[in-house]
Each structure stands twice: as C-alpha cells, then as structure tokens.
Amino acid sequence: MKEKDLRNFSLLCSILGLLVLFFASKKLESVVTKISDLTFNDIGKRVKVCGNITSYYLSKKNHLFLGLEDSTDSIDIVIFNSTISKLNLDPHILNKNQEICVLGTLTEYKSGLEIIADNVELC
Q: Is 80 exceeded by the pLDDT of residue 118?
C-alpha cells in the first residue's frame, strides 16, 4: 500500500471511530430512568432522571441539594460547587416545581439513594 493510501485509510478509520463513539455516548446519555426503577443494585452507575424540583437548599459552601420528583417516586440530588462552576450554572435560577433533567452517579447516603450530579439540563 502506498503511504498516501495508508494515510487516507487511517484517517477514514479515525473519523468512523469518532462517529461511532459520538452516537453511542448520545444514546447512553439520552436514556431517562424512572426514579422508581433505581435500586441499590444500581449504585455506582451513571443515570439520568427528569422531574420537578420539590426542595432546594444552597449550603454555605455553595453545594446545592435538591429534592427531585417524577411521576413514580422522588430522590435527592447533590450538585457540588465544583460542578456548579464547571457547568456555569447559576443555582439561583432553579426554583421549586421547575422541571430539570439530571445526569450523574447513583450513590447511597444514610440508607437511601441519591444522585451526585455531573450535568443538569433545564427543561
């Protein structure tokens, strides 16, 4: 194979690989889970849930604690100040009864489930 052909083939494979990764990541992140479907067996997994904010607390260290409820159940959401900064999120724009989607890691805290948020989308 000529050097030019090899370079073109490598470039094509790289582009195809990136496209596959892009679409696979979008498919994984777009699956919304009902809160009632989350179990202790899912701890450590990345999950996406959508619902209405039922409670809101901004700590002195600028960590945000939310209650989130969908039509099936409710769960606590933690958004650490580093995530708030990374997302360039103004915590004061969030209100009770506002609908949001949260992507994060399911964890256990005080014998219950909560989500440590990596991303927050306003709906």
A: yes
